[in-house]
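Batch manifest, entry 17 of 40.
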Amino acid sequence: MIAELINERLILLNLNATSKQDVFNELSQALVDNGRVKDKAAFVDDVNAREALGNTGFEDGIALPHAKSDAVIAPGVVIGISRAGIDYGAEDGGLSHIFFMIASPTNGGDHHIEVLASLSSKLIEPGFTQALLAANTPCDVMALLTKPSQRTDHNGPTKGLIIGVTGCPAGVAHTYLAAEALEKAAHELGFDIKVETNGSIGVKNTPTQEEIQRADAIVVACDKQTDMTRFKGKPVIEVGVKEAIRDGKGLINRALNAAPYQTTGESTQSAATSSSSSGSQNWRSNLYRYLMNGVSHMIPFVVTGGLLIALSLAIGGKPTEAGMAIPEGSAWQQVLDVGVIAFQLMIPVLAGYIAYAIADRPALAPGLIGGWIANTGSFYGAEAGTGFIGAIIAGLLVGYFVKWVSGINYHKFLQPLVPIMIAPITGTLFIASLFIFVIGAPIASLMDSLTAMLTAMSTGNYILLGIVLGGMAGFDMGGPFNKVAFLFSVGMIASGQTQFMGAMACAIPVAPLGMSLATVLGRKLNIFEATEHEAGKAAGAMGLVGISEGAIPFAAQDPIAVIPANMIGSMVAAVMAFSFGVTNSVAHGGPVVALLGAMNKPFIALICMVVGAVVTALVCVSLKKARKAQWLQSAA
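Output type: structure tokens
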């Protein structure tokens, strides 16, 4: 397949490019000159659009930019080598030297996926990248690419069968690199193997039930949801997709000694995995995977809703006493309404797909419903819902409850009804009852108590009040604490005390602006996921118009580092606003309010917001960096 899509004219051994965009332009020009692409600018735009979904710079100096595009006349691959190296934003923080750009027609099949799969077998070969960098002519490169893969096939009887599952949520390359790594490792260990790939073109190479039954072990190296119930009773390990690339042999050996997979409760660990540290690590790994599944599905709603709301308010909005509003009859109101719908859906989606990750399809409906109830305070007599924190709780509770319900040994006549009726209905009733009758009352009472506390503090020390208001604003970004602080500040406007809303207006945008800045500062430290880098751009836009929810994906994915950073930065902004006498006469926050004249000291207000965002970014990066160093030390 590679030989059909590449020739010596598409091999550039000494790139002139000094930046990522230069690489795209130089490689795209080679495709144009070779008659593979008709419109260079359009193709580069499509490559950048694909890059926005997740950086294609991987470990060991390799990058795989690719796109399906209307500008592609015929599928092709161009290879470029940069001797000096380019800062491509690779996952390991190193410079990228080798670039494979894959061009595929929009309606021309999945050539880029097939090429990535073929390249995977080469990229995992020991010494391949070094040999590629040492090549002196395009002919040498073609010889390396077309040389049969170096695989150690086991002759004679095999030791047994291994089943693998690989998949990555944001791209395709890791899916196939992991599959090749597992296949290579299995053959070297003397096992047959079948690897299911969960790529962007769907699930391929799915093992049959008969193959699963005779398998000696299952290796699930997957960062996206997969059906685990089919592996019940088989030795299974679940890890991230990158672990398969790093240590395929080690994973197979671990899987051979793993405990049988259980569909209910916690798996009984085998002697090889019974240590408390291993159990704790597996639990944390599973929890992270569940959260990632919810966050990855939520991010498109956050980005879509946030940007639509930001755009409509920035262009069509005007400051009023009730907040930023769009004049009656303006078309921007429809844009705002669509954005609001996306925002209303993002919290249920977070809960639903966390539950789905735990208990598969039967948990999706009750998870979505539970997330909606958690985020709608009127269900349980509260002025505001529990926000993303409630959604995480709802998703986890629903997931484990439905997993338990689905694992009960039902009569054979009832078994078909479990996934479509019994589990969804009981799961929905369980989470609805829990929030309405158990969790709801304490939440409503807490909000009343917080309001009373703020009222009592309103005549006291402004520094202390700034710390409290800022901390509440940064804690849950639209949840009950944030809402209580906001509603209290809005209520004080009516009594002529606009300094409270001034402090809130400066604290509200700190979390999204701070997280947007943190993704920029932390790019070379490899402390953010690729999806977070893209969410950071949207968060920045949302922060400009005072939408604190832009920081929710970061807080949901890593609350230990993000929430304290958001709180500290928001506190700084609120205290500064009180200290400088900043006031705000409208029920809204963010730079847009200052720029439109609703704040008495707009320049000072902007400084407060900027300082708070910088503090948040620095604290977040520091915490993430420290935790990463601690993890690496413990792993060593």
